[in-house]
Amino acid sequence: MLVLLAFIIIFHITSAALLFIATIDNAWWVGEEFFADVWRVCVNSTNCTEIDASFQDYPTMQAVQATMILSTILCCIAFLIFVLQLFRLKQGERFVLTSIIQLMSCLCVMIAASIYTDRREDLHKNNLGLYALTQNGNYGYSFILAWVAFAFTFISGLMYLILRKRK
């Protein structure tokens, strides 16, 4: 049982780390001369433009930002509740709340990555003429990490439901 708990703790911490990296790092959409994320667009690593109200589809980008932040916060809260429930509740009652919060984190990261996938072209249109440059690119590793974090948080949430009945 201790090995299983250690695995779940490491898995959960890995999920949180992936969410932090995907939320913070500037590599959701990358090309030869630029890189972009949910916070800014950088050309040649020196000319960075913050994503603000001047962007055409700013409310959609705010939705992506908010759901990524919320997923990261929920993942961290789920871990704290897991540690508290580990020693406080009796068998059969453990980890249900942790599982629910972790699955909510999973849902939030899925929503953020799905919105970004669907609206990526609109998200990088702005008044600064960067659209022509950012049109030719590929999804970056932060975007991929967001989808990997989705899978990890989903699996973690299911593991907590399964683990609640173990002694």
Automatic annotation (TrEMBL):
- What domain of life does the UniProt record list for this protein's source? Eukaryota
What does this protein's UniProt record list under function? Functions as a key regulator of cell membrane composition by regulating proteins surface expression. Also, plays a role in regulation of processes including cell migration, cell proliferation, cell contraction and cell adhesion.
What is this protein identified as? Epithelial membrane protein 2
What is the protein's major site of localization? membrane
One annotated Gene Ontology cellular component of this protein? apical plasma membrane
What is stated as this protein's family in its record?
Answer: Belongs to the PMP-22/EMP/MP20 family.
- Give the multimer and partner information: Interacts with PTK2; regulates PTK2 activation and localization. Interacts with ITGB3; regulates the levels of the heterodimer ITGA5-ITGB3 integrin surface expression. Interacts with P2RX7 (via C-terminus). Interacts with ITGB1; the interaction may be direct or indirect and ITGB1 has a heterodimer form.
Q: What is a single molecular function from GO for this protein?
A: protein kinase binding
Native species: Ailuropoda melanoleuca (Giant panda)
